[in-house]
Design goal:
Strand order of the largest sheet: 6-5-4-7-8-9-10
Order of helices and strands: HEHEHEHHEHEHEHEHEHEEH
Number of strands: 10
Strand content: 5-15%
Radius of gyration: 21 Å
Largest sheet: 7 strands, parallel
CATH topology of the largest domain: Rossmann fold
């Protein structure tokens, strides 16, 4: 952030605001916001109170924490960081897949409780990995899957034969992917089209023993339907990094499911990932101030 000092006054708030009022109060005089955590959202009503605001940069790929329609109406430029941490997030999703397949969390918990469980785990080589969403992260997840000998199929909203050849994947219909894949890994951005895309119908199509991985956004999956699929044993397990409520509460119903590996929306939180996102946010700000906005989504 020292790089920004020559461009203007830099104010850092290191703690999370307790209320919407506190949040807007902090940003009232700001011309530019660096939104450093995904759970800090900006609604249309809040943005309209920030009369000096000209630009927001995220420290993320996703932009669903910002009302982009309102930002566009208000003339607020919003920039994100497409692909900047894709290898890091994909590696996290890949790790979750292994942790679920080998029942690492369940076995650890059982042994700490004095048990010695006998339960089959899942052998992944030769299995089918279904990648939903083949942007930067999804395409890297596909590459990692192929690297260990998995057959990779994919679905996206805008599939093409050229993209399939580039990624070395086979695009199929969504129902075909759900019906065929041994592991379903989600890599879509959150939009009205993707919200609750994976619900009761989707879980019903999945074959018994499927593993679900979600490092995209919690709202892409209908939580209640996921819990039902896990508790019934229809799914072999799930690896979850994102939730419909963040931070999750102690009583969040998903936390009671046995065959799940949880991480707290931290897929890009490695030293390398944090450095890349921090650098990217600063680069976005400087580019805007210098009159050459980049990575503009609104």
């Amino acid at each position: 952030m020292e790089r920004l000092q020559e461009y203007g006054e830099v104010i850092l708030h290191s703690d999370r605001p307790a209320t919407s009022e506190e949040k807007t109060s902090r940003a009232k005089e700001a011309h530019i916001l660096m939104n450093t955590r995904g759970y800090l959202s900006w609604s249309a009503e809040e943005l309209r109170q920030l009369t000096e605001l000209q630009m927001i940069t995220t420290c993320s790929i996703g932009t669903d924490m910002i009302d982009l329609t309102a930002a566009r109406e208000l003339g607020i430029v919003v920039s994100n960081q497409p692909g900047r941490t894709a290898p890091i997030v994909a590696e996290h999703a890949f790790g979750l897949m292994f942790a679920v397949a080998k029942r690492a969390a369940f076995m650890t918990s059982a042994m700490k409780a004095g048990r010695w469980p006998r339960m089959d785990s899942v052998y992944l080589q030769g299995k089918t990995l279904g990648v939903i969403g083949t942007g930067n992260i999804g395409s890297e997840m596909a590459r990692l899957g192929r690297a260990i000998g998995m057959h990779v199929i994919a679905w996206t909203f805008h599939a093409s034969t050229a993209r399939a050849a580039q990624l070395g994947v086979e695009y199929v219909e969504l129902d075909t992917l759900l019906r065929t894949a041994d592991v379903v890994s989600l890599h879509l951005k959150l939009t009205n089209d993707s919200r609750a895309l994976i619900g009761r119908r989707a879980f019903g199509i999945m074959k018994p023993g499927t593993i679900l991985i979600n490092c995209a956004r919690g709202e892409i999956v209908a939580t209640e339907a996921l819990i039902e699929a896990l508790d019934s044993g229809h799914l072999a397990g799930a690896g979850i990094d994102v939730y419909d409520q963040e931070p999750t509460s102690v009583g969040h119903p998903l936390l009671g499911c046995e065959q799940v590996v949880f991480t707290p929306h931290c897929a890009d939180m490695t030293p390398e990932g944090v450095d890349r996102l921090n650098d990217g946010a600063v680069e976005n700000v400087i580019a805007f101030i210098e009159g050459r906005p980049q990575n503009v989504v609104s």
